[in-house]
Amino acid sequence: MNIDIKHIAKLSRLHIEEEKQEKFESDMQKIVDMVENLPDIEDAPLLDESNPMTLRKDVAVTGKFTRDELTKNAPHVTAGCLVVPKTVE
Amino acid sequence: MELYNLSGYELSRMLKDKKISSVELTESVFSRIDSVEDKIEAYVTLDKENALNKAKEVDDKRAEGKELSKLAGIPIGIKDNISTKGLLTTCSSKMLSNYVPPFNATVMDKLDSMDIVVTGKLNMDEFAMGSSTETSYFKKTKNPFDTTRIPGGSSGGSAAAVSAGEAVMALGSDTGGSIRQPASYCGVVGLKPTYGSVSRFGLVAFASSLDQIGPIGKSVKDTAMLFDAICGYDEKDATSADISHKSCLSNLKADVKGLKIGVPKEYFSKGIDDKVKASVLDAVKLFEENGAEVKEVSLPSTDYALNAYYIISSAEASSNLARYDGVKYGYRAKDYDGLIEMYEKTRSEGFGDEVKRRIMLGTFVLSSGFYDAYYKKAKLLQRRISSEFSDVFSDVDILCAPTVPTTAFKIGENIGDPIKMYATDVCTVTINIAGLPAMSIPCGYDGNGLPIGIQLIADKFNEQTLFNTAECYENLVGGFKSPNL
């Protein structure tokens, strides 16, 4: 399988600098060559029915945070709102 | 002996009997940090002022005659991917270098209620992706037994701090060996609990179906004491197991008479250093001499496990790390033109190379046209591996294997070659894939005086068997040996 690093980076919302592309592509190629060595196992349902864990009930979160607490770590906040670049003209 | 060098179990009794105060103990640990941290570089953030305040508070409570937990007043270090309210939690990444959580992980709420003293946040591989702590954005932690060598990873700061006396105990997290491998390299005890037995709420996610928080200590009792404190059901973690946990420390029985031990032959094949193999097999022989029944067993899919692990963990990482977009928290690039460029520049500048590699591998194996050939095959193999372990555990009580194929390697030796680095996880990843509990305890030293670890593996929720076997070994050969720093 040949790796197209520019395409995978784009899908991953990453930008790989020109000078690092060759090294990334060759490393990724080696990793993919390694991991593709898997046995063919007869298709079966992926859900493990013997799993003892049960999913929680769909209940509302009880923890309470103030707007200030929730936005304190945001890089750009104005009037209590998260600021992002304009996306609609 | 200095207080920082004693085990948590001994210190707990000394505190209870009022032979020492928590302030004295905390000062001893911070004095040790002052003298060796420049060499070891285990911490990303130190929290001395709050630690001493907490120690004083615990001493006051004890003086008032209040009933306190076994861990009250003991200085414990926390891996920097476990959320600590009001205290930096960076995941050793530029992306979260200024992130202060507004909430505690469930394990931190539990430990706070038991009055532990938090020393600070411990260095790790960035977002727990690595096996040497070299991918940290901030610093390279050193192995206390040889500071030219790595401490292992990703919980390298946690294992090195405990080994060097910079924390009495520590919390780590283990996705593919990240507690056991550094514990082995640094000569301490590390437990990866059964998946679902310790809440993951507040653990910054890497691969959610494999991640598990666990304890690192100088002794088996320390590790049992800390595991008892953090395990248990949590409604905030959808995969938390709703089962009752009995205290592993109270039920500790250092006895292997009649214990059925399996030695999986695949874990002793190519790539395992001769000295590591010999030390592990010597430990098995000792168990046999003390009444255990030993037999060879087979886990035929072991050879494929590393491949399945890197597919599954990277797939989950690519999804989990999509949240780092420079909007809600963490780093944001300075110059960009539009939303998409902001995302790309933020992520490219905020993540290191190893994290980028894993995100891209995960994106690739989940992408259209490749899902069946990679992710689906890996998930099917995961089921087969689990089923092989179940079969083996119908015949034996515990498995013994090396924790890592070699002892600690030199700093810089493998960092340029991801395949060589990934291979260090070959003995540990199967346990995460199958969701089992496993523990690494020191079982010898190589010709350079570097620690070797034996890995004990049990069936799900059978941590008690691990602790009993490990305690028996520790009693027979002696406990933790401090590095010469």
What does this 3D model show about the protein?
The complex is a heterodimer of chains A (89) and B (485). With 89 residues, chain A is mostly helical. Chain A has a domain at 5-35. Chain A is 34% helix and 4% strand. Chain A has a two-stranded antiparallel ribbon. Chain A is flat and about 50 Å long. Chain A starts with a helix and ends in a 7-residue tail after the last strand. The mean pLDDT of chain A is 86. Chain B has 485 residues and is α/β, with parallel strands linked by helices. Chain B has a single domain (1-243, 250-485), classed as Alpha-Beta Complex (Amidase signature (AS) enzymes). Chain B has 15 helices and eleven strands. In chain B, strands 1-3-2-4-6-5-10-11-9-7-8 form an eleven-stranded mixed beta sheet, with helices on both faces. In chain B, helix 5 packs parallel to helix 6 and helix 9 crosses helix 12. Chain B is globular and about 65 Å long. The mean pLDDT of chain B is 97. Classes of the chains: A mainly alpha (89), B alpha/beta (485). At the A-B interface, helix 1 and helix 2 of A face helix 9, helix 10, helix 11, helix 12 and helix 13 of B.
Major sheet: arrangement of strands of chain B:
1-3-2-4-6-5-10-11-9-7-8
The portion of residues forming beta strands of chain A comes to under 5%
Overall strand count of chain A: 2
Order of helices and strands of chain A: HHHEE
Q: Which word captures the global form of chain B?
A: globular
CATH topology of chain B: Amidase signature (AS) enzymes
**Which pair of chains has the greatest number of interface residues, and how are they split between the two chains?**
A-B, 50 and 67 residues
Shape of chain A: flat
Q: What percentage of amino acids of chain B are in beta strands?
A: 5-15%
- CA-based gyration radius of chain B: 21 Å
Number of domains of chain B: 1
Q: Assembly state here?
A: heterodimer
